Every structure is written in structure tokens, then in C-alpha cells.
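task queued by scheduler; priority normal; single chain, no ligands, no partner chains; default sampling; output format set to C-alpha cells
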Amino acid sequence: MKMSSFRKGCCALTAGLGVLPLSASAKDAWLEVGPAFRMGMQVKVTGSSYARDNAAWHDAQHTGPLTAPGGIGTVGDYGDRSYDNGYVNRDAATGNPASLDPNTTWNWGYQNASQYNSTANTLSYQKTGAPGYVNTVNKSVSTSDDVSGCGIELSGGLPLYDQEGWSVDLCFGFSGVWGSKLRINTSNYSEDLRQIVTTDVYSTAGVAAADFPAAGYSGTYDGPFGTPPAGGTLVPNLPTSRNSVSNHLSTTSNNINFAVDQSIFQFSVGPQIGWAASDKVSFNLRPTVSLNIVDVDVSRNETFGANSAADHGSSTDVFFGMGVIAGVNVDLGRGFYVGVHGGYEWVSETVDVSVGPNTVSFDGSSFVLGAEVGWNF
């Protein structure tokens, strides 16, 4: 609803308040004032997050998504393989059917004695990949919470009908509930920082343990084909097995905080139907139509690792509404009375505030409670 419509509505309401009292005698009118309480107003947050949508928001350690170590080729293809603790490369005969053994190579070396297992006749190598991330949580934001608030209410009425304990009044009201604050914390994105460690195992069954080179060996023989030279040691160029393990390094999750402040100022009009149960106690029922000024202010903060961002948004809208309120009054004499009331107020639309990659929606419809001190005059 546009603000121009709101101004017209206020003018009409003001005119009604100013003119209608002339139609009744002063002693028949009443005024009341007291605290107002609204509960069950709802705040809903939807959308996404910077951590989810912005690839640059990954930890400084990241080099990208998690990948297997490079430089070691595939298990089933002849190749040059460089490991963290050695290498197994091709020589001129590797893969050549005319060579002495096309599946082997002299061009290899290793660093640590622990890599060689003389009992199992195996030689092992390891290669550690670069740190990379793996998504563990990746979803849209969808969360909601209820908020309550308190304020003040002022009402006035003019009698239209009064007979045999029953009465009908024309009522005008104003209520303001402001400074209702809600804090929402949520997270929609998390990732593990991991590294893949790959272990390749080569068979050394063709090499006697006594003839196996000591740690630090670096072979360079490159041929010719035929009988290996004295001291040359052949190993397969293809590993017999490969095993990869993903090691967890850290976990990073985003944290999104919303600070939502909202206020509702309501102008209402409607009939009040009353019934006097005794000289002191009376009950009433008041259906209303209303004009609601709803103001919402949102501050948003998101952190993810070393990254952070702050956003702010606000909106003020005017909506029509309806409600029904029931109450009971106790006469104190001399025209004064006290009472309590409760009911439900419906606001026709929600206020939507865009803040960063999120939308915060506020629904002012709620249960209402109040107490009042009144004066008949």
C-alpha cells in the first residue's frame, strides 16, 4: 500500500474521531488506556549466503575442491611417477616389446628403508595432494521464529444502543508496539579441508633381498635392451595396487546473525457489543478493521573463516487488517473502571526486507492481550 493511501486513511479516521462525538452526549462517551502486548508475530528468513555463493570465501589454505595427488599417473598405464619419497620412471625399454622385460624399469629410486618390505617383497611410495575442500553442508537458508512485543493502547467509544443490559458502541483505537527485537543465528554452509594421501605398492618378487639397493638408491640406467648390467636392479613400472586416504585437516562453517527490530502502530475502528452481567461486571466483544503501519529494520552479519560481511536493510509499509477482541470490565464507581482483554489481530500482508543474499519477512498478525483503566463521561 502506498503512503498516499495511508495519509488518506488517516485523514478519514481523524475526521471521524472529530465529528462523531458531536452525535452523543458527553456523559455517554468513554476513554480507556493501558499496556498492550502482542505475541506470536513471526519472522522468517529465506535465501542463501555468501559462503555458499562466493567461491572466493574459502579458507586461505584452499587451492580449490579436493583432488587426488598429481604426477603419479594411472595404475594401468606406463608412466613417469614422482612421489614424495621417491620416483618410478620409464626407461628406454619400458613398454617396448623388443626389450628384455617391457614391464620393468631401471629408472627408479627411493628414500627411506621403511618403504621396502623384504618379507612381503614390496616397495611402497606415497604422494600427498594439495589441501582442498569438500562440502559437508550446502543448503538454502530457511528458518523462522516468533517474536513478542509490548506497548500502549488508547481507545475511545460512543454509545449507539443501550437497553436491558445490552449495549453497542462505536469504538476507535490506537495501539503502538515498538522495539520488538529478535536475534536469529543460523548456518547453511560447511566444508572440510582435506588432503588425499595415495600409496602405490610395487612388487619386488624378482629381486632377492640381499641384492635390493639400500635406501637412497637412485637408478639411472637407460639401456640398451638385453641383459641388465652388473648392479642394475629392475622393478615393475606399474604398481600392483593403489590406495588413497582422505585426511581431515579442519572444518569451517559459516555463521549468519540477524538482528531484527520491528514496530507496529495500529489505528482501528469497529463496534463493541457489551453485556452487563451485574452492576459491577460487564463483558464485551469488539470486531475491528484497522490500518497498520509496520516498520522493520534488519542488520545482518556473516562470517566464514577469515571472511566477513555486514548488511543492513529496512522497510516501512502500511497494511489493512482485521481483528476480534473480547474483554471484561469491573466498575470502580464515579465513572471509572478497570478491565482486561485478549484476542487476535490479523495484518493482511508481510513486510519483506532484502538484506545481502537473504529476505527477512515479518508477519505482524498475532494474539493480543491488554489491560486498561477507563473513564465514562
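post-processing summary
- The chain has two helices and 20 strands.
- Confidence is low (pLDDT under 50) at residues 1-27.
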